[in-house]
Amino acid sequence: MQIGFIGLGQMGTGIAANLLKAGHEVTVFNRTRAKSDALASQGAKVAVTVGEACKGVAVFTMLADDRAVEGVAFEDGGIIESLPSHAIHISMSTISTALSKRLAEAHAEAGQRYIAAPVFGRPDAAQAAKLFVVAAGEPDAIEIVQPLFDAIGQRTFVISTQAEAANIVKLSGNFLIAAVIESLGEAMALVGKAGIDKHQYLEILTSTLFGAPVYKTYGNLIAEAKFSPAGFAAPLGLKDVRLALAAGEELRVPLPLASLLRDRFLTLLANGGDELDWSAVGGLAARDAGSS
Amino acid sequence: MQIGFIGLGQMGTGIAANLLKAGHEVTVFNRTRAKSDALASQGAKVAVTVGEACKGVAVFTMLADDRAVEGVAFEDGGIIESLPSHAIHISMSTISTALSKRLAEAHAEAGQRYIAAPVFGRPDAAQAAKLFVVAAGEPDAIEIVQPLFDAIGQRTFVISTQAEAANIVKLSGNFLIAAVIESLGEAMALVGKAGIDKHQYLEILTSTLFGAPVYKTYGNLIAEAKFSPAGFAAPLGLKDVRLALAAGEELRVPLPLASLLRDRFLTLLANGGDELDWSAVGGLAARDAGSS
Amino acid sequence: MQIGFIGLGQMGTGIAANLLKAGHEVTVFNRTRAKSDALASQGAKVAVTVGEACKGVAVFTMLADDRAVEGVAFEDGGIIESLPSHAIHISMSTISTALSKRLAEAHAEAGQRYIAAPVFGRPDAAQAAKLFVVAAGEPDAIEIVQPLFDAIGQRTFVISTQAEAANIVKLSGNFLIAAVIESLGEAMALVGKAGIDKHQYLEILTSTLFGAPVYKTYGNLIAEAKFSPAGFAAPLGLKDVRLALAAGEELRVPLPLASLLRDRFLTLLANGGDELDWSAVGGLAARDAGSS
Amino acid sequence: MQIGFIGLGQMGTGIAANLLKAGHEVTVFNRTRAKSDALASQGAKVAVTVGEACKGVAVFTMLADDRAVEGVAFEDGGIIESLPSHAIHISMSTISTALSKRLAEAHAEAGQRYIAAPVFGRPDAAQAAKLFVVAAGEPDAIEIVQPLFDAIGQRTFVISTQAEAANIVKLSGNFLIAAVIESLGEAMALVGKAGIDKHQYLEILTSTLFGAPVYKTYGNLIAEAKFSPAGFAAPLGLKDVRLALAAGEELRVPLPLASLLRDRFLTLLANGGDELDWSAVGGLAARDAGSS
Predict the structure, then answer these.
(1) Which of A93, B2, B14, D209 has a CA-to-CA distance to A281 between 20 and 30 Å?
(2) How big is the CA angle at D123 (ends D122 and D125), to the nearest 5 degrees?
(3) Across all residues in chain B, what is the average pLDDT?
């Protein structure tokens, strides 16, 4: 399939490489050129403008936030202006439901199609084509691009004809991870101050009821207070919790635990946490307990 | 080994049966006699008083709450009065750290020994000898009763010489489960109001990062709003969160998520939730969102 | 002074009338014409376009929210386009700090001046020229319009050269009122369920430490659960708490009580509270307690 | 009237002195004798045992907490044992509703009478006979001791025949003060980080809607971060919030703002706040914001 790919961060690079491996004809675009060149050696064409990446059946975007996606979509010469009729914009970024809805409308008006398809998985999963894809949008559009999802992930969940539903699933998933971080942070602050070994405690948890990867990964980071280097930086964590709250506000769903998390992230960032991993939120309970 | 067992609820009955199966000589006591008789057919001796269950190497207590344990331990003719020198009280109930400490002191004064050994696992695990035992107390006392733990559980974690440490681990574990219930409740209120199918949502979660039993079990209950009959009743959930908060207060560890949970349990109980499963806390976010 | 006045709601109408009484030459503009006509009989000129209200030394805006202010300010033929050099835009609306900052910059670029001057006081105070004005911006601009403030209020507080500081003061003031509503709501839910008469309780409070108008006013509304008609509608309360949180997020100041209030407002709105007074938030604690 | 007075702290000393001035025959008791002697010079008889202070029509207790009151009431030779039939125990201490209920029952069984009569006002008000008395209990008992209340306060509010109702009013009043401290702490953290002068900000608040003593007093302490010496020490603040929460738990009234306050007090105490005034809770928002 002839496709475009915009946004070559850690995630995007891995995904685009797998699309190439699967035999698709991929034209890549990135604001900073160097990352495109790396993929050129794997067979990608390099676009100099956003428009050049919008010539095929579909174009992916995998960008940092609303502002970045808004930029490439709505600017002069952007995706909306450049994409052919009936072509499909596959938005993988973790963006707000509001922007996702706006994109769906704008593409519909322009005679194009829009799918929201955020993914679960970290850069290593992207590289290994082991992502989970959560897709929402017009069923026939999703059907067309299903081979692309197959090339990058281990499973695709199609959950709604409303594109923004996929974004809510992604945002609420990140909220659930942050909730695990907070709850572990509190539990460890308590047992730690009681003199219990945190690693043994974590072993008890993960051997019994909490045997999920999320407890192992974040439990270890919190037990060791090892919050640097950042796998997923704290400001991104704040962004996602904020977007979950915004989705809740639009739908009028109060989310008190998400509110607590938002305050935690702000506390973290106000105290020098910009460069830390978002799991550093799990260290704040110990700080409040005077233990760190 | 010659031992006593006090408290034949769902958990206690399963545990005592496994002790019998392993060949131990077990004298059981329960306030309501009928439950003792059931075990008699499996070889248990039936005690008519607490004191009669305190004649051996060790006596187990598996009771509902602080008040019940306080009763059998400190009353006239209770455990403290009846237990031989050097014999061991194994307290499996989910009680406060304050009472556990007080029991440790009282037994020490009386020349006896005390182990806190709460368990993780529900009645079916008790019956199947698949419990996880978290034990704390004097190491040599624990060594003596290790064969008893082997008879009832799949693994014993020895975590401290301070008995109350085991109670903190148990209480914080229940807090973590309640945190999962709350976070799932909020996430499902959000995706539900967005029109997403809750079961499909749960499948996405448990297929990806949240593959632990706790998410599957409670996720299903919340998705179906099936909070009755109670596996673990809401008032017990409130009790455990309250005890976790009390442990935090004593150690000066603020636990804001536990505070949120406490308010949730109170709301539930104030609105007719006495007979519901504690997972009904996971339905309150939907109620606040006007969805139920 | 020759001035314009845009936005003739309950507040704006009272303020504009007082400016006329003080002898100023006022050109009024309102999207719905009828309200302008009412002031015409008191001597106002009626503008048919925003631009016609921007011919004098200063133009006031007193509008519902960011969107409304953004509209009249930035649209074609709006204030930025129409206001003469050096003329002053006095923004009295309760808007976000972000918009206030943006307006300050846009006016500066256009060679105009911008003052943020939100007020404390309800419609009756506006009518009686008893408002409190909190002003921020260039000192010499404020000096020029001081006679206008004198005509509408009982006192002006000049607090900063940064316009958005005035908006923060206003937003945090409304946050403090909402905090009083919540705290009274919880206290009354408690004493009410204990069988204590709420009015007598309120009398005790206001006779002793809590003798401020805010306790009397809101205490009575909560004691009587009289939340309709709305003096200040719940959606506006949510808006102001949200803007306070947004200001906190920009400055990285976590505000947990404001987060709690935000969730309360959402709960209220999700359960049919759109038309209620914002004091209805004070009824939610009783609802959670199963008392209403 | 012949009366006893137990507990000569700052509050008790002032109250007892006013009872003497009004011509009553007062026998005082205090664990540390020196304070009794000071009152002897004003005409008090000094009791060497609790029982000696229980010979008259009524005996006051004004003690630090539940434990102290429980001690003098229930110990051998304590109030319950010593008080004549029909004599009245007037409990002014800020104690739990549970203990107040228990005292009411114990006195009734012993053929004595019990009134809960906590007061609002600080030591200077006690000295000036300007306290507010909130009384609950049997109406005829209250009538008998009304002249005593008149001698020590400016007004008595009789609110219920159930003694513990007076304790709930007192506890909820202290909760409301703590809520003011928290809300001002958050608001000042916000405006402070925005560069606004906190004293000017406070002047705006107290000149407009927040003209109550509680805002002036605590606003100044927070603006100056002057939390020492303690007028009312932080551990007492925690105690009162805990007792308000306990009352709420018994009545099943969730109090989320009180929960937030409890966590704040714990954070304060965990970080060296034992000797600080409870208004130091108002400094925590600034700490979380990285401003202090």
Answers:
(1) A93
(2) 70
(3) 96
Locate D47 and state its tokens.
Answer: 């009791």
- Strand D2-6 relative to strand D58-61, pairing: parallel
Instruction: Check CB contact under 8 Å for D160 and C255.
Output: no
Task: Note whether C32 and C12 are within 8 A (CB).
Answer: no
Q: How far is CA B49 from CA B45, B53, B80, B112, D93, in A?
A: 12, 7, 13, 19, 43
Distances from the Cα of D121 to the Cαs of A147, D94, D155, D173, D186, in angstroms? Answer: 75, 12, 11, 11, 26
Are C256 and A242 in contact (CB < 8 Å)?
no
Question: Are residues A272 and D289, on separate chains, in Cβ contact within 8 Å?
Answer: no
CA–CA min distance C71, chain B (Å)? 30
Instruction: Give the distance from residue C289's alpha carbon to the nearest chain B alpha carbon, in angstroms.
Output: 5
pLDDT tens for residues B210-233? 999 899 999 999 999 999 999 899
| Helix (H/G/I), strand (E/B), else coil: C62 | coil
Which residues of chain A have a CB within 8 Å of the CB of D263? 288
- State the pLDDT confidence band at D101, using cuts at 50, 70 and 90: very high
Q: Using a CB–CB cutoff of 8 Å, tell me whether D192 touches chain B.
A: no
- Reported as half-sphere exposure (CB side, CA atoms, 13 A), residue C124 has a value of 2
Of D193, D204, D215, the CB nearest to C134: D204
Q: What is the ipTM of this complex?
A: 0.96
In this complex, is the C-beta atom of A237 within 8 Å of any C-beta atom belonging to chain C? Answer: no
**Residue D67 buriedness (CB in 10 A; 0-12 / 13-18 / 19+):** exposed
Every domain of chain B with CATH number 3.40.50.720 lies at 2-161
Q: Does B245 touch chain A (CB under 8 A)?
A: no
D255 — contact with chain A (CB < 8 Å)? no
Cβ-based neighbours of A243, under 8 Å, separated by 6 or more: A94, A95, A96, A97, A167, A171
| Maximal CA-CA distance, chain A | 65
For residue D120, report the phi and psi dihedrals to the nearest 5 degrees. -105, 135
Q: Is the pLDDT of residue D231 over 90?
A: no
Question: Contacts of residue D246 in chain B, CB cutoff 8 Å?
Answer: none
Residues contacting A109, CB < 8 A, separation 6+: none
CATH 1.20.120.80 for domain A168-288:
no
pLDDT at D136 over 80: yes
Top-level class of domain B2-161: alpha beta
> Number of C-alpha atoms within 13 angstroms, CB side, residue D164?
22
Residues of chain B with CATH 1.10.1040.10: 168-288
Catalytic residue among B35, B55, B170, B226: B170
Clarify whether B193 is annotated catalytic.
no
Phi then psi dihedrals of residue C121, to 5 deg: 140, 150
Residue type, C103: L
pLDDT of D168 reads 98
Tell which B residues from 158 to 177 touch A, by Cβ distance under 8 Å: 159-160, 162, 164-165, 168-169, 172-173, 175-177
Cβ proximity of B86 and B113 under 8 Å: yes
pLDDT at C292 over 80: no
Pairing of strands B131-137, B119-120: antiparallel
- Only one residue has tokens 């010659």, namely B2
**Residue C91 is encoded by which pair of tokens?**
């923004």
Q: B253, B262, B284: which to substitute to probe chain A, counting the most A Cβ within 10 Å?
A: B253
pTM above 0.90, yes or no: yes
Closest to B190 (Cβ–Cβ): which among A255, A260, A285?
A255
**Burial label, B244 (beta-carbon count in 10 A; 0-12, 13-18, 19+):** buried
Q: Do D263 and B256 touch (CB under 8 A)?
A: yes
B 267-286: CB under 8 A from C: 267, 270-272
